[in-house]
Amino acid sequence: MKPLKITTGAMVTAIFGVMLLLNRQTGGLFQEVLLFLYPIPMVAYAAQYGWKSSIPAFAAMTLLSVLLGNFTGIFYGMSQALIGLVFGGCLHHKVDMTKILFVVMLLSAAVNVLDIAVLGILTGFDLNLEIEEMQRMLNSMFQQSGMVVPETMLATGYLKQIFVVSMIVLGGIQGFLVYEVSLMILHRLRFPVQKPKSIFLYAPPKWTGYGALVAVILYTTGMTRPFQQDMLQNAVLTIGTFGYIYLVCFGFIAILLTFKIYFPRMRLLRVILCVILLFLFPLLEMAAGFMYIVSQYHMYLMEQYSATS
User: Fold this and answer.
1) pLDDT at 149
2) Which residue from 180, 167, 37, 168 is spatially nearest to 101, judged by alpha carbons?
């Protein structure tokens, strides 16, 4: 058993090294694609042997990241290998698949935010300069269109908060894709991993719906009547943005499930319609998300879904 474990560890480390080498030889051309593939070798190994046995393989991947990557490559290689270690360890210990999904999304979001600090230290990335450029672009765009927006929306602190929030959201989306792609490939390779649960089965706690709604109300209040303290104002706007995104995401799921039940032949079209509604009627999706979380609507939809499937 031990020789097989060592051989498998060497194999997944070699696969990881090949991806690092490919990224280096192409000048980072495929880095955005490889980010979704970096964790897979570590996921496969940790899913078979667990966290403790996977630490030597993780250390080898970290060393390869240092030897074969540039500054950003080292950071991405190490962070994605760590995500793979946690992901695979959870699979090995039969953790609930929905919990694994949220853990992977949280880790990816944390890596995305940490990436800002790493870029600032290693590449001279200045967030303040980026925010100033964003302010100039937004001011020019609003002036040309004749739109009048509250000054709070163009404040430096608020734009910084929105920038960080967007990085967190993008990190969460990246984590979701890593989760789906990893499981799809591992199933194709016949690795012994659990089948993922449908996102429709997840029922978030009702208090999160009420909390998100309160956050959105505070956000609206802060936009119309700004608080005197800048720190309080930025905190309210940031939390309100998270609350809005939270409700809209579950509203998207609620409407998608509704279309899936009542219009089963629409398939890809129902996803397109949900995206269109997201941009045209975001308040509708927010309201649907609130009802989906706090009422019996989710249970009703699941009963209908079970009856039709």
Assistant:
1) 62
2) 180
Cα(254)–Cα(96) distance, rounded to whole angstroms? 22
Give the helix ranges, DSSP H, for 69-196: 71-92, 97-123, 127-145, 156-188
Q: Which amino acid is at 25?
A: Q
Q: How far apart are CA 79 and CA 77, in angstroms?
A: 6
CA dist 51 and 87 (Å) reads 9
Place 188 in a pLDDT band, splitting at 50, 70 and 90.
confident
Q: What is the pLDDT of residue 157?
A: 67
For residues 177 and 204, the answer to whether their CB atoms sit within 8 Å is no
Distances (CA, A) of 218 to 69, 115, 212, 239, 291: 45, 30, 10, 9, 19
Is the pLDDT higher at 285 or at 161? Answer: 285
- Give the dihedral sign, CA 50/56/58/60: negative
CA distance 138 to 132: 10
Average pLDDT, rounded, for the chain: 81
pLDDT tens string 17-59 = 888 888 888 777 777 778 888 898 999 899 888 888 888 889 9
